[in-house]
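Sample entry (587 residues):
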Amino acid sequence: MSRILFILIFSVVPLMATSDPNALTVHLLNYIASDYSGAVSSKNSVLDSFEYEEQLEFSQKILNQIRANKDLNKTSFEAEAVQLQKMVFEKAHPEKVKKLAEQMAEQLVQRTGISTKPEHSIDLVSGKKLYEQNCYQCHGAEGHGDGPSSGNFDPRPGNFASNKLQGKGPFHFYNVIKMGVPGTAMASFDYLTSEEIWNLSFYVSELQKGNRSTLSPENQSFLLKAHQALELCLSAFQNKEWDKARSFAISAYLDGIEPLEPKLNLKDPEFKAKLERALMDIRRRVDNGSSEREFASLVTGTQNLLDQAGVLIAHDNPSLWFTFSVSFGIFLREAFEAALLLITLLGVVRTFGNRSAVLAVHGGWGLAVALGLTAWFVSGWVLVLTGAQRELLEGGVSLFAVFILLYFGIWMHRKSEIGRWRNFMKEMVTLAKERKNILILGGIAFIGVFREVFETIVFLRALLLEAGGNHQMALALGVLSAFILVLVLSWLSVKLSARLPVRQLFMVSSWIMFFLSFVLLGKGIHALQETGLIPVTELGLGIRWDVVGLYPFYQTLGAQFALVLLLVVIKYWDSRALVGQARESLS
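Predicted structure, serialized as tokens:
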């Protein structure tokens, strides 16, 4: 007989009197469904007399409970309870008894409205702590029934990985923990709150799957939040509660997957994108409509991806070389984007001949780096932010940067036109002295660099957590190597830009800013899509290129197309204006 959660006591503990007799009946039905096969063989013979006596007692108690319930007696439940008792008495085939007991339990849950799911987010860190305090002595660290006190019991405490317990979900463990097991040393843990019992139940369920040694409780909690949100999303969809379904779909990403994205991106960027597309597709189906069957299939498929994500980010002791190469690649990508912007700005401001403008640019990026370093050292501030806060911050900063870069890029492009160049050169001295323009330059440097610093911190923090503290040196060397390479590339770029005539420098710089605006516009809108602020409408193309901000959605591509169209219109009107000025000068 399986003993689900023993505690170190030496007296036989009776089944607790519960305030919900229906829950007790469901608990006993599940117990018969689980353990009857250990008492009676398929040939109708008794395998364990003590176990069989227990099954008889439970079947009688189920019948008594139903007859005592005025809402259930004189119904099909009573007839089924009588049939179940008769089958147990006659030593019926285990599969038939199991089927009837499970059917009765399911119908009773539906009839009485017993909650089979928690009403709060599961905290597996808390569940682990409760397990260590209450269950470790008997069941051991891995739940194999081999704890320090397991030898005091005959039979030994149950092994959660055993075939008998396969398929038992958290609700099963919740009932066992809350009510105990009659005639055994398994007492009721009724002193725990409902929330604590659910946390413990889910942790035991994870032990059953053998996940404890490979996936941290923190990561398990995030994946469970995603699973829970998707189940609630499906339930709301089936009840035609569209707003709730959409809210739960967004929560599955923001509260469950977004915190894990850096780790998933480190292990398998393509899989991360696949999981993100699946979650986006769920939101799209909620907004645009879908059959219940198709939607349920999509949710199930996405939950399978969540399970794959758990396997993917399971701790597997990455090598020092892995940590070095990944940190090198992350820093090189983000730092070079920032360096490209700074080189462009510094190349422009040096033409002003104003040292204050140069200092403003250096001050802007210096402040961004200082804030990033502070965030790194102050308890991983960036990772403490919720998924929604991170996406809102990233999206807001990106879109604001688009506005600033676009404004400054158009300004430089116009000043590079031949017809306006002479007038601009005359105005440069006055322009450079204006405090407003100097502050704008510093603001551009700050915003552009802060966004890259923010992303770098998120990914490097995730890498360090994944690799462990003994990989700090490998991570630092990767960052340092990338930094040196960025310095060399930046120096070469500065030398090249210094050879360009000022007008051509302005022209090249303006196009670089237009390109950065295009990239950040796509990334910013996509970040806001992930928070649910902007809808998701997928384009039937496999376009996805994070580096340049391309995503397969009408909203992102539409905004980028509008940006390109705006630049074309501005170029057209500027050309007409120049032609008009030329005609006036000739007349």
